[in-house]
Design goal:
single chain, 324 residues, alpha+beta, Lipoxygenase-1, 3 domains, 5-stranded antiparallel sheet, 5-stranded mixed sheet, rod-shaped
Length: 324
C-alpha cells in the first residue's frame, strides 16, 4: 500500500530544521514502524512556511488513528515548528489530517491524532468490491448448482440405465423361458402323437392264456428320488453299456409305486402295461404273470425284467417289489 505524506512547516522565524525527520503511523489494521522521511524534490527540506511531500510503502494500515513525528536534533539549527501532517491513501483517495501547530520539544511533537478529512473514492471502491464479491458469490453458487444438477442428472441417467438393463435382462430371461415352454409343449404333443400312432399300429389283443385280465392284473412302476425330488428311473439308475450292470446313482433311491399318482403314472390296476407290451405276459421277462414292472424316462415306459430287478434289489427283489 502506498501513502503520500505532506508536512506543513510553520511560518514563524526559525520554524525550519536541518535535522533528520522521522514518522511512525498506527491504523485500525496495523502499525508502521518509524521511518525517515524527506522530500526528494526539495533542495533544502523543512524550511519555514513550506509544505513537503513524499511516499511511504507499507502494508494496509486501515483507518489511520495516530502516529509520531520527531527529528534527531542534528544540525546547527534543529528547533522546528509544524502546522499539520496529512496522509493520503493512493488506492482509494482517503485523506487523514493531524493538526499540530506547535514547536517541538526535545525533537518531538505531541502524539499525532488523525481524523478523516476526505473520503476520496473509498465508498465507490468499497461498493464496487462488494458488487464484485457478490458477483463472485453468485457465480460460485450458480456453478455449484450447475455441478449439483449435472451430478444429479448423471446419477439419474446411471439409475435409468441400470433399470433399463435390468428390464432387458428380465425380458431375455422370459423369452428363453417362453421358448423352452413352447418347445416342451411341442415335444409333449409329438410324444402324444407317437403314442397314439403306436397304439393304432399295435391294438391291444384279447388276453391270452397266462395273461390275467381285468382287475387281477397290476402294474408296478419303479421311479427314483434324487436330492429329495421324484425323478424318472432313468435318472436314478445308470447301466454300463459294456457289461450291462446297473446301479443306483450316489445319493439316489429307487421307489416302488403301485398307483397311477405315484411316480410318473405307469402303475395301477391294471396300469399301463398293455399300452406298451400289449398281450405279452410279464412272465416272459422273468416276472409274475399278473404283475408287470415298468420304468420311465418321464414320457414313456419300458419293462424291467427280473435280471434288472435283482441287480437293483438283490436276490429278494420280489419281496422289495411285490411285497412277499
Amino acid at each position: 500500500m502506498r501513502y503520500r505524506w505532506a508536512v506543513k512547516v510553520g511560518d514563524a522565524w526559525y520554524a525550519g530544521t536541518d535535522a533528520n525527520v522521522f514518522l511512525a503511523l498506527t491504523g485500525t489494521n496495523a502499525s508502521m514502524r518509524e521511518v525517515q522521511i524527506s522530500d526528494a524534490d526539495a533542495i533544502n527540506d523543512w524550511e519555514k512556511g513550506d509544505t513537503y511531500h513524499g511516499v511511504i510503502d507499507t502494508e494496509d494500515l486501515g483507518e489511520l488513528t495516530s502516529g509520531t513525528l520527531r527529528h534527531d536534533m542534528s544540525g546547527p539549527s534543529s528547533g522546528w515548528q509544524v502546522d499539520w501532517v496529512k496522509l493520503n491513501n493512493e488506492e482509494d483517495g482517503r485523506e487523514w489530517t493531524a493538526t499540530i501547530g506547535a514547536w517541538d520539544e526535545q525533537g518531538r511533537f505531541p502524539m499525532l491524532k488523525f481524523s478523516l478529512t476526505n473520503r476520496g473514492q473509498y465508498d465507490q471502491i468499497q461498493a464496487q468490491k462488494a458488487r464484485e464479491a457478490q458477483n463472485a458469490a453468485d457465480k460460485a453458487k450458480a456453478e455449484k448448482q450447475a455441478r449439483d444438477a449435472k451430478l444429479a442428472d448423471e446419477a439419474k441417467s446411471a439409475e435409468d440405465l441400470a433399470f433399463e438393463q435390468e428390464l432387458a435382462d428380465q425380458q431375455k430371461l422370459l423369452e428363453r423361458e417362453l421358448k423352452k415352454a413352447k418347445l416342451e409343449a411341442e415335444l409333449a404333443k409329438k410324444r402324444a402323437e407317437i403314442e397314439k400312432l403306436k397304439a393304432a399300429a399295435n391294438p391291444t389283443p384279447a388276453p391270452t392264456p397266462g395273461m390275467p385280465s381285468g382287475g387281477a392284473f397290476r402294474t408296478y412302476e419303479l421311479f427314483g428320488i434324487v436330492n429329495g425330488m421324484n425323478v424318472p428311473l432313468s435318472q436314478a439308475v445308470i447301466c454300463d453299456a459294456n457289461t450291462g450292470r446297473c446301479s443306483v446313482v450316489p445319493g439316489g433311491r429307487v421307489i416302488v409305486g403301485e398307483a397311477p399318482n405315484e411316480g410318473f403314472g405307469m402303475g395301477g390296476v391294471p396300469g399301463r402295461w398293455q399300452q406298451y407290451y400289449g398281450a405279452q405276459s410279464p412272465a416272459q421277462f422273468g416276472l409274475d404273470a399278473d404283475k408287470g414292472v415298468l420304468g420311465s424316462d418321464g414320457s414313456r415306459g419300458w419293462v424291467l425284467n427280473g435280471q434288472f430287478l435283482s441287480q437293483v434289489f438283490g436276490g429278494g427283489w420280489r419281496q422289495a417289489v411285490y411285497g412277499y
